[in-house]
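--- STAGE predict ---
source: upstream dedup step, 1 unique chain passed
mode: sequence only
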Amino acid sequence: MCFSLAILALHKGQASAQTNQQLLQERLISPAVYELLNRRGATTPTQRLAVIQDACGAKQLPPSDCGFSRKRRPD
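--- STAGE serialize ---
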């Protein structure tokens, strides 16, 4: 199961009561995540989590939005 770092941040504090626009302005989500959430009509933390998990599983978001790094493993 993949978890976006943004979604983990969304569940802390007052972020769950904020709009997608506010989350973007506060840089809690990336522009790509913002566009995805708006396209899918996700406005609650539960909806946001489901949308981002689905998008990460389908590789529709970059690894940085899915909580993965692109660090190379040593040979």
